[in-house]
């Protein structure tokens, strides 16, 4: 199995969300997880797909489905009349269609696997009914496997505290695909939203988005040998524990910005995230820390000082909405004046969500906006100006 097909190791997870491209092995991951639960002890499970046909043909009897995992003499038995898969130890997995949310009222389960969540007509209605039924055993869990689409329901699911999100592109499972499949589709759709969504498993922009996937795909490039200036931009968490602290390293060379790293951390104390900022400053030789001061003001400066940060701190304050602050930065991406020196899928997903609503606080994207604004839009305007008449 590939790393993305292994369930989370974090003990407090409630929902395992696997976002993957076509053929990335999502179905196999869900099938292995359900089969493992069923064989470990006597349990009742739920299988939910876009339609009953999908549950049987893909999740149960498909090439990567549950029945395909076991040896011929040890496979669970499909009972069509009761729409359930039955193991020899008595464990059962019942099939449900996302076309009928009310069918999930009443039954109760130890665990559930929901497939192609973004293809459901009423994803939140189905998901809520399913969760009310996850009430058996000591620790009922939910696995959700889907090719992502930019729908609010998915963004809200990703933002939940108990959700652990994994991502996998089609390339991660290339060895199990037909020769030439990936190269052919990349040649056809490379650099487009379709490639990002269907092959890379990224949540692309939705209605009202400020950043475009085409601009982000075009922004890939190498880091220059030398940079004029480097800053570490910080979006501090609103609370002392649990929230993410956005940490993004940005450099400038002449009239272009270079995103060097996303060092965002989650679940750390102020001392912890300040230490991560100090490490980023040292690793990249940053000359300044740009930190939003709305949540903590001088406390942010004090925490960073206690972490022995080797760069001065400039506190910035948000007087406009996140979308309004991001608009000038989005224009720089359209102009091709920002380069991403690496792969930053989590950061880019937050950027693509800006302006759409319905998701978690964009800590990474906020930090990015502060950093690029400081280097490209503020510093260039500082100092005396010459006007030619």
**Major sheet summary line:** 8 strands, mixed
So, the CATH homologous superfamily of the largest domain? P-loop containing nucleotide triphosphate hydrolases
- With helices defined by DSSP (H or I, 4 residues minimum), what is the helix count? 13
Query: Which strand order spans the largest sheet, edge to edge or round the barrel?
Result: 3-4-5-2-6-7-1-8
Radius of gyration: 24 Å
How does this model look, in words?
Residues 233-372 form the Terminase large subunit gp17-like C-terminal domain. There is one protein chain. With 389 residues, this protein is an alpha/beta fold. It has two domains: 3-199, Rossmann fold (3-Layer(aba) Sandwich); 213-381, 2-Layer Sandwich (Nucleotidyltransferase, domain 5), CATH 3.30.420. Helices cover 33% and strands 20% of the residues. The chain contains 13 helices and 15 strands. The protein has helices at 26-40, 52-60, 66-69, 123-132, 152-159, 181-189, 193-199, 213-218, 270-284, 298-306, 322-334, 345-353, 363-378, and strands at 15-20, 44-49, 77-79, 84-86, 92-97, 111-115, 141-146, 163-168, 229-235, 244-253, 256-262, 265-266, 288-292, 313-316, 338-340. An eight-stranded mixed beta sheet has the order 3-4-5-2-6-7-1-8, sandwiched between helices. Strand 6 (111-115), helix 4 (123-132) and strand 7 form a beta-alpha-beta unit. Helix 6 runs antiparallel to helix 7, helix 11 crosses helix 13 and helix 12 packs across helix 13 (363-378). It is elongated, with a radius of gyration of 24 Å. The protein starts with 14 loop residues before the first strand and ends in an 11-residue tail after the last helix.
């Amino acid at each position: 199995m590939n790393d993305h097909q292994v369930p989370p190791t974090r003990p407090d997870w409630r929902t395992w969300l696997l976002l993957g491209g076509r053929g990335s092995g999502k179905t196999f991951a869900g099938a292995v997880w359900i089969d493992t639960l069923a064989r470990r002890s006597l349990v009742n499970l739920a299988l939910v797909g876009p339609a009953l046909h999908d549950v049987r043909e893909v999740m149960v009897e498909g090439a990567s489905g549950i029945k395909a995992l076991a040896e011929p003499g040890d496979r669970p038995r499909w009972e069509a009349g009761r729409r359930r898969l039955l193991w020899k130890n008595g464990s059962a997995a019942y099939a449900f269609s996302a076309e009928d949310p009310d069918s999930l009222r009443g039954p109760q389960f130890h665990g559930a696997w929901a497939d192609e969540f973004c293809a459901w007509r009423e994803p939140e209605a189905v998901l809520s009914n399913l969760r009310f039924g996850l009430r058996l055993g000591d620790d009922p869990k939910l696995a959700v496997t889907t090719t992502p689409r930019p729908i609010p329901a998915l963004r809200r699911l990703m933002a939940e505290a108990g959700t652990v999100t994994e991502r996998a592109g089609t390339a991660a499972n290339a060895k199990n695909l037909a020769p030439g499949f990936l190269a052919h589709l990349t040649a056809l759709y490379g650099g487009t939203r379709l490639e990002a969504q269907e092959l890379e498993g990224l949540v692309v922009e939705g209605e009202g988005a400020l950043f475009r996937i085409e601009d982000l795909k075009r922004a890939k490039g190498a880091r220059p040998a030398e940079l004029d200036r480097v800053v570490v931009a910080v979006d501090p968490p609103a609370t002392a524990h649990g929230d993410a602290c956005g940490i993004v390293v940005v450099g400038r060379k002449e009239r272009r910005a270079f995103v060097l790293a996303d060092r965002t951390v989650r679940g750390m104390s102020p001392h912890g995230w300040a230490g991560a900022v100090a490490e980023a400053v040292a690793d990249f030789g940053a000359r300044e820390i740009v930190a939003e001061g709305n949540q903590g003001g001088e406390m942010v400066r004090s925490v960073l000082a206690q972490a022995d940060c080797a760069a001065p701190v400039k506190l910035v304050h948000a007087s406009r909405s996140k979308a309004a602050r991001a608009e000038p930065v989005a224009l720089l991406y359209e102009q091709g004046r920002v380069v991403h020196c690496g792969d930053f899928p989590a950061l880019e997903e937050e950027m693509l969500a800006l302006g759409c609503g319905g998701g978690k606080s964009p800590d990474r994207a906020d930090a990015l906006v502060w950093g690029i604004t400081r280097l490209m839009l503020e510093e260039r305007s500082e100092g005396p100006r010459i006007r030619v008449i």
